[in-house]
Amino acid sequence: MNNGHTAFLNEVASIPACDKINECVQCGVCSGSCTTAEHWEYTPRKIIAMVRAGMKDEVLNSNSIWYCVSCYLCNARCPRDIKPANIMHALEAIALKGGYKPPTKTTTMYRSFARSIEKNGRIYEFGFMLEYFLKTNPFAALKMLPLALSLLTHKRMPLLPKVVKGTDQLNKMFHNITTGGSR
Amino acid sequence: MRYYAYYPGCSMEATGAPVEKAIHAIAKPLDIELMELEDWTCCGSSPFSGVDKVKAMAITARVLAQAEKTGLDLVTPCSSCYTILREANQLMKEDHKLAWQVHEALVSVGLSYNGTVNIRHIVEVIYNDVGLEALAAKVNRPLTGLKVACYHGCQQVRPDYGFDDSELPDWLDRMAKSLGAEPVYFPLKARCCGSSLVISETDMAVDLIHKLLQNAQENGAQCIVSTTCPLCHTALDAYQSKVNSKFKTKYNLPVLAISQFIAIALGLDFKASALEYNIVSPRKLLAPYFSGKASLAKAESAT
Asked: Looking at the predicted complex, does its ipTM rise above 0.90?
């Protein structure tokens, strides 16, 4: 096997909870169980086969993994306990880190979500959704307006963020991580 | 009185208000004291770990470090937080490199985590620690005759925690029964509501919510009793109007979190049960119970 093939597989297999990918027997229980499989360009079983075949760009440029809703049916049913859901999320992280631009809006949603945490310490639901819609499709925000209003009138959508003191601690911890710790 | 460290999770301050307010209302009557962690932050969450795994683990570890100081079990009502916290706890034991990075980050702000926290879902605590017999003994307003579909959702039972069944759980059914209600057959009770992608893949999530509502109604449910997960509750309650406009349906199924359902059965009033926060109003459905007419009818039929 050439190096290019195994490099991607090894990268995935070295991620915690993804180390059993080599034990997949391609039975397809994950694809058959998947809540959203009809939307996937390649089903979970295929994605796993493609990772093992070293098809990095095909996997990371597809919309497939981004449809995982974390329902964990695949994990619960997998006869080899390879944890397909964890593999999909690990692939998401590799795609974002590698600068891939798969055809999905979920990448933007993830980034807006992460920024909200870094800024406020907690998820500020209204702010994060507003940022997401402004970045993707402001007209879609209009379609969400009735829902947002009903949440607002039922006191379930505070318009201001609650910034916690813990945010300072978080930022110090993040700084420690990005600078490689004390050593 | 039993004491627990309590981690509500971010959604409980906004969309999860009905679930959360009812939890606080029932805690004392159930003899449990939930001591909220001071100045808690996000649990780490799956979108964040998709963007940066180590930072996400560090956030989770900060929550766990705070909980460890209390020496108590850490209880959360959010199924998503529950999964994230448990996975991180496990991962730090298995991945030493990751654990070291996280440890260094914690030390830089004067914290440490030794991996001793026991993370629990509030539904599991009510089922195992309070118990169904004690729950039934506290009922002042039995929900007799009410047909309910009990929605457990995904992450309360999956990945397999080894407590309730991971595909056809029945803890909520048993709880509803001990409060006097009649759980209906509901095969989709642990299928996904799609709420983790409800913002970016709204259409897909609405399809999933539609299936759940359809399955509950077809089997004769008058309302849904949901787990305490604020994401599940909001998907089923707030997005019902989206389902109706997409599928030209007329669903009007109130969605009561189990915390609200227990509050009603304990005898708390409409407001104290946090029912005013529900978007699909349960007022009409519950009127006979609040006016006492339902129990009157039951007493008459018994004599």
From this structure: yes
What domain range is A85 assigned to? 3-97
Q: What is the pLDDT of residue A138?
A: 87
Would you say residue B132 lies in a domain?
no
Residue B299's pLDDT is 52
Q: Which of B21, B49, B51, B191 to probe the A interface (max A CBs under 10 A)? A: B51
Give the orientation angle of helix A125-136 with respect to helix A106-120, to 10 degrees.
Answer: 140
User: Which residue has tokens 């702010």?
Assistant: A127
Rounded CA-CA distance B23/B20 in Å is: 5
- Contact (CB<8Å) B10/A156: no
Q: Which of B40, B105, B166 sits opposite A176 (nearest CB)?
A: B105
Is there a domain that residue B268 lies in?
Answer: yes
Contact residues, chain B, for A105 at CB < 8 Å? 200-201
Does residue B128 fall inside a structural domain?
no
- The pLDDT tens digits of the residues spanning A56-93 come to 999 999 999 999 999 999 999 999 999 999 999 999 99
Instruction: Verify cis geometry, omega within 30 degrees of 0, for the bond prior to B159.
Output: yes
Residues of B in contact with A114 (CB under 8 A): 47-48, 51-52
A22 in a structural domain:
yes
| A26 Ramachandran zone, left/alpha/beta (phi>0; psi -120 to 50) | left
pLDDT at B258: 98
Q: Are residues A26 and A90 in the same domain?
A: yes
Alpha helix (H) residue ranges in B239-290: 240-247, 258-266, 283-290
Residue B62 is part of which domain span?
Answer: 2-122
CA B39 to centroid of chain Cα atoms: 22
Helix, strand, coil % over all residues of chain B, rounded to 5: 50, 10, 40
